[in-house]
Amino acid sequence: MAITHETLRLVEQMRLAVGSIVDGVTRGLVSAWVRAWDQLAVDVAAGIAELLQAGDGRWPARRQIEQTARAMSALEVVAAALGRLAALTRSQTITGAQEAARIALDGQSELISSQLPYGSTQALAARYRRQQPDTIDAIVRRTAEQINAVHWPLADEATAAMKRELVRGVVVGDNPRTAAARMLRSLEGEFNGGLTRALNLARTEILDSHRQAAEIGQEVHEDVLDGWVWHAELNSSRGRTCPSCWAKHGTVHPLSEPGPIDHQQGRCSRTPKTKSWADLGFDIDEPDDLIPDARAIFDALPETERVAIMGRRRLDLLDSGEIAWADLPQRRTTSDWRDSYGVRPVKDLEHIAKRRAA
Predict the structure, then answer these.
(1) Are the C-beta atoms of residues 22 and 45 closer than 8 Å to each other?
(2) What is the C-alpha to C-alpha distance for residues 221 and 42, in angstroms, rounded to an integer?
(3) Against a cut of 0.70, is the pTM above it?
Protein backbone atom coordinates (compact mmCIF):
# COMPACT_ATOMS: atom_id res chain seq x y z
CA MET A 1 0.00 0.00 0.00
CA ALA A 2 2.94 2.31 0.64
CA ILE A 3 4.37 4.15 -2.32
CA THR A 4 8.07 4.34 -1.56
CA HIS A 5 11.04 6.42 -2.64
CA GLU A 6 11.88 3.63 -5.08
CA THR A 7 8.35 3.77 -6.52
CA LEU A 8 8.68 7.50 -7.09
CA ARG A 9 12.10 7.04 -8.67
CA LEU A 10 10.72 4.48 -11.08
CA VAL A 11 7.74 6.72 -11.94
CA GLU A 12 10.07 9.60 -12.76
CA GLN A 13 12.36 7.33 -14.78
CA MET A 14 9.39 6.12 -16.81
CA ARG A 15 8.07 9.65 -17.25
CA LEU A 16 11.40 10.85 -18.62
CA ALA A 17 11.61 7.90 -21.02
CA VAL A 18 8.12 8.48 -22.43
CA GLY A 19 8.70 12.24 -22.50
CA SER A 20 11.81 11.64 -24.58
CA ILE A 21 9.75 9.65 -27.10
CA VAL A 22 7.09 12.37 -27.31
CA ASP A 23 9.67 15.14 -27.64
CA GLY A 24 11.54 13.22 -30.33
CA VAL A 25 8.39 12.77 -32.41
CA THR A 26 7.56 16.46 -31.90
CA ARG A 27 10.96 17.58 -33.14
CA GLY A 28 10.74 15.29 -36.16
CA LEU A 29 7.31 16.55 -37.21
CA VAL A 30 8.18 20.21 -36.70
CA SER A 31 11.33 19.77 -38.74
CA ALA A 32 9.44 18.00 -41.55
CA TRP A 33 6.77 20.73 -41.66
CA VAL A 34 9.37 23.52 -41.78
CA ARG A 35 11.31 21.84 -44.58
CA ALA A 36 8.11 21.21 -46.54
CA TRP A 37 6.98 24.84 -46.34
CA ASP A 38 10.43 26.13 -47.29
CA GLN A 39 10.23 24.01 -50.44
CA LEU A 40 6.65 25.04 -51.21
CA ALA A 41 6.89 28.76 -50.49
CA VAL A 42 8.41 29.62 -53.88
CA ASP A 43 5.60 27.90 -55.81
CA VAL A 44 2.91 29.42 -53.58
CA ALA A 45 4.42 32.91 -53.91
CA ALA A 46 4.51 32.53 -57.69
CA GLY A 47 0.86 31.49 -57.71
CA ILE A 48 -0.13 34.51 -55.61
CA ALA A 49 1.83 36.84 -57.90
CA GLU A 50 -0.06 35.48 -60.88
CA LEU A 51 -3.34 36.08 -59.09
CA LEU A 52 -2.42 39.71 -58.56
CA GLN A 53 -1.59 40.07 -62.23
CA ALA A 54 -4.98 38.60 -63.12
CA GLY A 55 -6.61 41.23 -60.91
CA ASP A 56 -4.56 44.10 -62.34
CA GLY A 57 -2.81 44.76 -59.03
CA ARG A 58 -5.90 44.18 -56.89
CA TRP A 59 -7.23 40.97 -55.40
CA PRO A 60 -9.18 39.22 -58.17
CA ALA A 61 -12.72 37.85 -57.98
CA ARG A 62 -13.36 34.23 -56.94
CA ARG A 63 -13.98 33.17 -60.54
CA GLN A 64 -10.67 34.64 -61.69
CA ILE A 65 -8.87 32.85 -58.86
CA GLU A 66 -10.32 29.47 -59.75
CA GLN A 67 -9.34 29.99 -63.40
CA THR A 68 -5.72 30.84 -62.56
CA ALA A 69 -3.86 27.65 -63.31
CA ARG A 70 -0.66 28.43 -61.44
CA ALA A 71 -2.40 29.27 -58.15
CA MET A 72 -4.54 26.15 -58.31
CA SER A 73 -1.50 24.08 -59.22
CA ALA A 74 0.35 25.48 -56.19
CA LEU A 75 -2.50 24.34 -53.96
CA GLU A 76 -2.35 20.86 -55.48
CA VAL A 77 1.36 20.70 -54.68
CA VAL A 78 0.62 21.82 -51.12
CA ALA A 79 -2.12 19.19 -50.80
CA ALA A 80 0.29 16.48 -51.91
CA ALA A 81 2.87 17.68 -49.38
CA LEU A 82 0.29 17.67 -46.60
CA GLY A 83 -0.69 14.15 -47.58
CA ARG A 84 2.92 13.05 -47.16
CA LEU A 85 3.14 14.85 -43.82
CA ALA A 86 -0.07 13.20 -42.62
CA ALA A 87 1.40 9.80 -43.51
CA LEU A 88 4.59 10.72 -41.63
CA THR A 89 2.50 11.73 -38.61
CA ARG A 90 0.78 8.36 -38.67
CA SER A 91 3.99 6.34 -38.90
CA GLN A 92 5.84 8.39 -36.27
CA THR A 93 2.90 8.22 -33.87
CA ILE A 94 2.51 4.46 -34.25
CA THR A 95 6.22 3.93 -33.65
CA GLY A 96 6.16 6.21 -30.60
CA ALA A 97 3.03 4.52 -29.25
CA GLN A 98 4.66 1.11 -29.56
CA GLU A 99 7.74 2.26 -27.63
CA ALA A 100 5.70 4.02 -24.94
CA ALA A 101 3.45 0.99 -24.47
CA ARG A 102 6.42 -1.31 -24.07
CA ILE A 103 7.90 0.95 -21.38
CA ALA A 104 4.61 0.85 -19.46
CA LEU A 105 4.25 -2.93 -19.68
CA ASP A 106 7.84 -3.57 -18.68
CA GLY A 107 7.65 -1.12 -15.80
CA GLN A 108 4.54 -2.24 -13.89
CA SER A 109 6.19 -5.23 -12.22
CA GLU A 110 9.00 -3.03 -10.88
CA LEU A 111 6.54 -0.41 -9.62
CA ILE A 112 4.55 -3.06 -7.76
CA SER A 113 7.63 -4.79 -6.36
CA SER A 114 8.87 -1.47 -4.97
CA GLN A 115 5.81 -1.36 -2.67
CA LEU A 116 6.06 -4.88 -1.27
CA PRO A 117 8.35 -6.28 1.44
CA TYR A 118 11.81 -7.02 0.11
CA GLY A 119 12.26 -10.67 -0.84
CA SER A 120 8.58 -11.56 -0.55
CA THR A 121 7.12 -14.14 -2.89
CA GLN A 122 4.56 -11.56 -4.02
CA ALA A 123 7.34 -9.16 -4.97
CA LEU A 124 9.18 -11.83 -6.92
CA ALA A 125 6.00 -12.93 -8.65
CA ALA A 126 5.25 -9.36 -9.63
CA ARG A 127 8.79 -8.76 -10.85
CA TYR A 128 8.97 -11.76 -13.16
CA ARG A 129 5.40 -12.11 -14.39
CA ARG A 130 5.13 -11.73 -18.18
CA GLN A 131 2.49 -10.02 -20.30
CA GLN A 132 0.57 -11.58 -23.17
CA PRO A 133 2.72 -11.30 -26.35
CA ASP A 134 -0.02 -9.65 -28.42
CA THR A 135 -0.78 -6.82 -25.93
CA ILE A 136 1.41 -4.22 -27.61
CA ASP A 137 0.14 -5.18 -31.08
CA ALA A 138 -3.44 -4.61 -29.88
CA ILE A 139 -2.54 -1.19 -28.51
CA VAL A 140 -0.79 -0.22 -31.74
CA ARG A 141 -3.84 -1.31 -33.75
CA ARG A 142 -6.07 0.89 -31.58
CA THR A 143 -3.69 3.82 -32.10
CA ALA A 144 -3.74 3.33 -35.87
CA GLU A 145 -7.55 3.23 -35.86
CA GLN A 146 -7.69 6.45 -33.85
CA ILE A 147 -5.31 8.20 -36.24
CA ASN A 148 -7.41 7.10 -39.21
CA ALA A 149 -10.64 8.32 -37.59
CA VAL A 150 -12.77 10.88 -39.37
CA HIS A 151 -11.78 13.70 -37.00
CA TRP A 152 -8.10 13.65 -38.03
CA PRO A 153 -8.14 14.44 -41.81
CA LEU A 154 -4.96 16.50 -41.60
CA ALA A 155 -4.29 17.02 -45.30
CA ASP A 156 -7.88 17.61 -46.42
CA GLU A 157 -8.76 20.13 -43.73
CA ALA A 158 -5.55 22.13 -43.99
CA THR A 159 -5.81 22.28 -47.79
CA ALA A 160 -9.45 23.39 -47.61
CA ALA A 161 -8.51 26.12 -45.13
CA MET A 162 -5.77 27.38 -47.44
CA LYS A 163 -8.16 27.47 -50.39
CA ARG A 164 -10.70 29.46 -48.37
CA GLU A 165 -7.99 31.91 -47.41
CA LEU A 166 -6.89 32.22 -51.03
CA VAL A 167 -10.41 32.91 -52.25
CA ARG A 168 -11.19 35.35 -49.46
CA GLY A 169 -8.21 37.56 -50.24
CA VAL A 170 -6.71 40.36 -48.15
CA VAL A 171 -7.62 44.04 -48.27
CA VAL A 172 -4.34 45.95 -48.03
CA GLY A 173 -4.65 48.67 -50.62
CA ASP A 174 -3.19 48.78 -54.12
CA ASN A 175 0.35 47.61 -53.40
CA PRO A 176 0.64 44.16 -55.01
CA ARG A 177 3.85 43.28 -53.15
CA THR A 178 2.22 44.01 -49.81
CA ALA A 179 -0.80 41.96 -50.80
CA ALA A 180 1.36 39.04 -51.91
CA ALA A 181 3.43 39.08 -48.70
CA ARG A 182 0.32 39.24 -46.52
CA MET A 183 -1.35 36.39 -48.35
CA LEU A 184 1.79 34.23 -48.21
CA ARG A 185 1.92 34.67 -44.43
CA SER A 186 -1.77 33.79 -44.14
CA LEU A 187 -1.35 30.65 -46.21
CA GLU A 188 1.71 29.65 -44.20
CA GLY A 189 -0.38 29.99 -41.06
CA GLU A 190 -3.05 27.69 -42.48
CA PHE A 191 -0.38 25.20 -43.58
CA ASN A 192 1.10 25.18 -40.09
CA GLY A 193 -2.38 24.65 -38.67
CA GLY A 194 -1.95 21.11 -39.95
CA LEU A 195 1.22 20.86 -37.86
CA THR A 196 -0.65 21.99 -34.74
CA ARG A 197 -3.23 19.26 -35.20
CA ALA A 198 -0.58 16.68 -36.04
CA LEU A 199 1.35 17.44 -32.85
CA ASN A 200 -1.81 17.26 -30.76
CA LEU A 201 -2.65 13.92 -32.35
CA ALA A 202 0.83 12.45 -31.97
CA ARG A 203 1.42 13.52 -28.38
CA THR A 204 -2.03 12.52 -27.18
CA GLU A 205 -2.04 9.10 -28.83
CA ILE A 206 1.48 8.20 -27.66
CA LEU A 207 0.64 9.14 -24.07
CA ASP A 208 -2.71 7.35 -24.22
CA SER A 209 -0.97 4.21 -25.47
CA HIS A 210 1.39 4.37 -22.52
CA ARG A 211 -1.51 4.71 -20.08
CA GLN A 212 -3.48 1.91 -21.73
CA ALA A 213 -0.50 -0.42 -21.51
CA ALA A 214 -0.08 0.47 -17.83
CA GLU A 215 -3.74 -0.39 -17.27
CA ILE A 216 -3.33 -3.77 -18.94
CA GLY A 217 -0.09 -4.43 -17.06
CA GLN A 218 -1.77 -3.67 -13.74
CA GLU A 219 -4.73 -5.97 -14.46
CA VAL A 220 -2.32 -8.90 -14.53
CA HIS A 221 -1.39 -8.12 -10.91
CA GLU A 222 -4.88 -7.50 -9.57
CA ASP A 223 -4.35 -10.05 -6.80
CA VAL A 224 -1.92 -7.71 -5.03
CA LEU A 225 -3.30 -4.31 -6.09
CA ASP A 226 -5.81 -2.06 -4.38
CA GLY A 227 -6.17 0.40 -7.27
CA TRP A 228 -4.17 3.08 -9.02
CA VAL A 229 -3.11 6.63 -8.20
CA TRP A 230 -3.41 9.64 -10.52
CA HIS A 231 0.17 10.89 -10.76
CA ALA A 232 0.92 14.37 -12.12
CA GLU A 233 4.26 16.09 -12.60
CA LEU A 234 4.33 18.60 -9.75
CA ASN A 235 7.15 20.72 -11.09
CA SER A 236 6.07 24.34 -11.60
CA SER A 237 9.37 25.32 -13.22
CA ARG A 238 8.49 23.24 -16.30
CA GLY A 239 5.15 25.03 -16.56
CA ARG A 240 3.28 22.05 -18.01
CA THR A 241 0.95 20.98 -15.19
CA CYS A 242 -2.48 22.63 -15.22
CA PRO A 243 -4.71 23.28 -12.16
CA SER A 244 -6.86 20.26 -13.01
CA CYS A 245 -3.88 17.91 -12.93
CA TRP A 246 -2.62 19.45 -9.68
CA ALA A 247 -6.00 18.73 -8.10
CA LYS A 248 -6.34 15.20 -9.53
CA HIS A 249 -2.85 14.18 -8.38
CA GLY A 250 -2.90 11.65 -5.57
CA THR A 251 -6.52 10.59 -6.05
CA VAL A 252 -7.00 6.82 -5.82
CA HIS A 253 -9.14 4.95 -8.36
CA PRO A 254 -10.38 1.37 -8.78
CA LEU A 255 -8.19 -0.87 -10.89
CA SER A 256 -11.09 -1.35 -13.33
CA GLU A 257 -11.36 2.39 -14.03
CA PRO A 258 -9.54 3.55 -17.21
CA GLY A 259 -7.25 6.50 -16.90
CA PRO A 260 -5.96 8.90 -16.10
CA ILE A 261 -8.35 10.47 -18.62
CA ASP A 262 -6.09 13.48 -18.85
CA HIS A 263 -6.70 16.37 -21.24
CA GLN A 264 -5.20 16.23 -24.73
CA GLN A 265 -1.39 16.16 -24.58
CA GLY A 266 -1.57 15.74 -20.80
CA ARG A 267 1.32 13.75 -19.31
CA CYS A 268 -0.27 12.39 -16.13
CA SER A 269 0.26 8.68 -15.46
CA ARG A 270 -1.30 5.91 -13.38
CA THR A 271 0.79 4.47 -10.57
CA PRO A 272 -0.26 1.06 -9.21
CA LYS A 273 -1.08 0.95 -5.50
CA THR A 274 -0.73 -2.36 -3.68
CA LYS A 275 -2.98 -3.67 -0.94
CA SER A 276 -1.81 -3.14 2.61
CA TRP A 277 0.86 -5.52 3.85
CA ALA A 278 -1.59 -6.77 6.49
CA ASP A 279 -4.15 -7.61 3.79
CA LEU A 280 -1.45 -9.48 1.91
CA GLY A 281 -0.64 -11.55 4.99
CA PHE A 282 2.52 -9.81 6.24
CA ASP A 283 2.64 -9.32 10.00
CA ILE A 284 5.21 -6.52 9.86
CA ASP A 285 5.09 -2.75 10.11
CA GLU A 286 4.42 -1.00 6.81
CA PRO A 287 6.24 2.27 5.95
CA ASP A 288 4.34 5.50 5.37
CA ASP A 289 3.00 6.27 1.92
CA LEU A 290 5.27 8.83 0.24
CA ILE A 291 3.00 9.98 -2.62
CA PRO A 292 3.59 13.76 -2.72
CA ASP A 293 0.80 15.96 -1.31
CA ALA A 294 -0.07 18.23 -4.25
CA ARG A 295 -1.94 20.82 -2.18
CA ALA A 296 0.88 21.13 0.34
CA ILE A 297 3.46 21.50 -2.43
CA PHE A 298 1.33 24.09 -4.23
CA ASP A 299 0.67 26.14 -1.09
CA ALA A 300 4.43 26.28 -0.40
CA LEU A 301 5.24 27.75 -3.81
CA PRO A 302 6.13 31.45 -4.20
CA GLU A 303 3.12 33.63 -4.95
CA THR A 304 4.27 34.38 -8.50
CA GLU A 305 4.39 30.67 -9.33
CA ARG A 306 1.00 30.03 -7.76
CA VAL A 307 -0.53 32.81 -9.86
CA ALA A 308 1.21 31.51 -12.99
CA ILE A 309 -0.37 28.08 -12.46
CA MET A 310 -3.87 29.11 -11.36
CA GLY A 311 -4.43 32.62 -12.66
CA ARG A 312 -5.16 35.48 -10.27
CA ARG A 313 -8.93 35.13 -9.93
CA ARG A 314 -8.92 31.33 -9.59
CA LEU A 315 -6.22 31.55 -6.93
CA ASP A 316 -8.14 34.21 -4.97
CA LEU A 317 -11.22 31.98 -4.91
CA LEU A 318 -9.13 29.03 -3.73
CA ASP A 319 -7.21 30.93 -1.04
CA SER A 320 -10.38 32.51 0.32
CA GLY A 321 -12.02 29.11 0.71
CA GLU A 322 -14.86 30.05 -1.65
CA ILE A 323 -13.98 27.04 -3.79
CA ALA A 324 -12.34 23.74 -2.89
CA TRP A 325 -9.28 22.05 -4.36
CA ALA A 326 -11.57 19.34 -5.77
CA ASP A 327 -13.59 21.98 -7.67
CA LEU A 328 -10.72 22.74 -10.05
CA PRO A 329 -11.05 19.72 -12.42
CA GLN A 330 -14.02 19.39 -14.75
CA ARG A 331 -14.91 16.30 -16.75
CA ARG A 332 -15.57 17.03 -20.42
CA THR A 333 -17.05 15.07 -23.29
CA THR A 334 -15.54 15.55 -26.74
CA SER A 335 -17.17 14.19 -29.90
CA ASP A 336 -15.21 11.28 -31.45
CA TRP A 337 -12.77 11.23 -28.52
CA ARG A 338 -12.73 9.93 -24.98
CA ASP A 339 -13.89 11.95 -21.97
CA SER A 340 -11.17 13.96 -20.29
CA TYR A 341 -10.52 16.21 -17.31
CA GLY A 342 -9.52 19.83 -17.81
CA VAL A 343 -9.46 22.93 -15.65
CA ARG A 344 -12.88 24.38 -14.78
CA PRO A 345 -13.40 27.90 -16.21
CA VAL A 346 -13.24 30.80 -13.76
CA LYS A 347 -16.84 31.84 -14.43
CA ASP A 348 -18.04 28.35 -13.43
CA LEU A 349 -15.95 28.48 -10.27
CA GLU A 350 -17.53 31.85 -9.44
CA HIS A 351 -20.97 30.29 -9.81
CA ILE A 352 -19.94 27.51 -7.41
CA ALA A 353 -18.70 30.10 -4.91
CA LYS A 354 -21.98 32.07 -5.14
CA ARG A 355 -24.10 28.95 -4.60
CA ARG A 356 -22.16 28.02 -1.50
CA ALA A 357 -22.35 31.54 -0.11
CA ALA A 358 -26.12 31.72 -0.57
Answers:
(1) no
(2) 58
(3) yes
